[in-house]
Amino acid sequence: MRLPLPCNKVLATYVWIDGSGINMRSKDKILHCVPYSADQVPPWAFDGSSTGQATTDNSDTILKPAYVYRDPFRCDPHVLIMCEVYQGDGQPAATNNRKYCNDLCNYHAAEEPWFGLEQEYTMLDMDGWGLGWPKGGGFPSFKYQFSYCGVGAKYVVGRDITEGHGKACLYAGIDFEGTNAEVMHASWEWQIGTSVGIKGADDLWMSRYIMARVAEDFGVDITYHPKPMGLLHPGIGMHHNFSTKRMRSDGGFKFIEECIKKLEANHMKHMKKYGNDETTNRMRLSGKFETAPFDKFSWGVASRKASIRLQRHVKEKGKGFLEDRRPAGDCDPYLVCGLLMETCLGPAASTKSSPCSCPTK
């Protein structure tokens, strides 16, 4: 692994979302110089029939480079390439929601959409049971309130993985902002952003890839399932913090309230898209464990049981951002960020047939 490489050989790892909508794939290509932007990276074909994205009789599928990151596993000059997936006829693959989101980011660029993403997750042993949980189906004997931001081997497990992941994300150039142990034993969270436009969603997906790679070294599986340990234990979400220039300007609270009304009008349409599977997110949003009910929209100031939460200082200052607490841990941030922009700001000219036709008035 420490062998030097010729100076004109750069390892580029192409990374993409497969047909499951949550799992990621990658493969390596040798480039002859370091690419500093996506347009310097050539497109590449792959067998889409082996990733659930094409049929065997028409399997050629195209990887279109979207963003270049430094490779924290091989180090400079090697790179990770976040890619979009396109069918052979040039149409986006079914799980390629990046184009939808990026079109909206570009169309509403004057509004400077900002996103902050909070990714919760659970560490599992290779037997599928929670890391550090008693073997044979046992449950932790202590109360959950000691695990949240906890310290000590009795209350938290997997800190070495979170430490490695955080450093790797920072090295890669991701807008990585922090991490903490979550309420359920073996569950953690990391934060991306605040980032401008599409970068927040790009960074979140690449940080998922990096987490999977780091956890490989420890023989640990990472799951974003919204309710991995059943109904009696806390769930896993990904809160989306969202703001626009109007929201952040003086008097922006009025526009925030207008946006909340639009989100309420589209609540159930969004809920069908706010997770990899509607059923599992419904399990998470039970009204318990600091969640709002799946089929009931609410908002409030400093309320962790609301669908949309506003921090107290937003109300006091009369401007700021909103926090959408509804998305599941396994949601697609491209899709959720896109829906927030489309609903609050209106559709882009090129997204007439969006994944969710949401009225904006």
Offer a quick outline of the entry:
The protein has 361 residues and is of the alpha+beta class. It is built from 9 helices and 13 strands. The chain has helices at 98-107, 159-172, 199-216, 245-248, 252-265, 267-271, 278-284, 312-317, 333-345, and strands at residues 10-17, 24-31, 44-47, 60-70, 79-86, 114-124, 176-181, 187-196, 221-223, 238-243, 299-301, 308-310, 322-324.
What CATH calls the topology of the largest domain is Creatine Kinase, Chain A, domain 2
Return the string of H and E elements: EEEEEHEHEEHEEHHHHEEHEH
- The helix/strand class is alpha+beta
What radius of gyration results from the CA coordinates? 21 Å
Residue-averaged pLDDT: 94
CATH level-1 class of the largest domain:
Alpha Beta
Count of separate structural domains: 2
Secondary structure blueprint with pairings:
Blueprint: E1 10-17, E2 24-31, E3 44-47, E4 60-70, E5 79-86, H1 98-107, E6 114-124, H2 159-172, E7 176-181, E8 187-196, H3 199-216, E9 221-223, E10 238-243, H4 245-248, H5 252-265, H6 267-271, H7 278-284, E11 299-301, E12 308-310, H8 312-317, E13 322-324, H9 333-345
Parallel strand pairs: 1-5, 11-12
Antiparallel strand pairs: 1-2, 3-4, 4-5, 6-8, 6-9, 6-10, 7-8, 10-13, 12-13
Description:
InterPro entries: Gln_synt_N (IPR008147), Gln_synth_cat_dom (IPR008146), Gln_synth_N_conserv_site (IPR027302), Glutamine_Synthetase (IPR050292). Its main location: cytoplasm. Keywords: ATP-binding, Cytoplasm, Ligase, Nucleotide-binding. By secondary structure, this protein is an alpha+beta fold. It has two domains: 10-95, Glutamine synthetase, N-terminal domain (Ubiquitin-like (UB roll)); 104-345, Glutamine synthetase/guanido kinase, catalytic domain (Creatine Kinase, Chain A, domain 2), CATH 3.30.590. It has nine helices and 13 strands. It has helices at 98-107, 159-172, 199-216, 245-248, 252-265, 267-271, 278-284, 312-317, 333-345, and strands spanning 10-17, 24-31, 44-47, 60-70, 79-86, 114-124, 176-181, 187-196, 221-223, 238-243, 299-301, 308-310, 322-324. The strands form two sheets. Strands 6, 7, 8, 9, 10, 11, 12 and 13 form an eight-stranded mixed β-sheet that branches. It is globular. It starts with 9 loop residues before the first strand and ends in a 16-residue tail after the last helix. The model has no long low-confidence stretch (mean pLDDT 94).
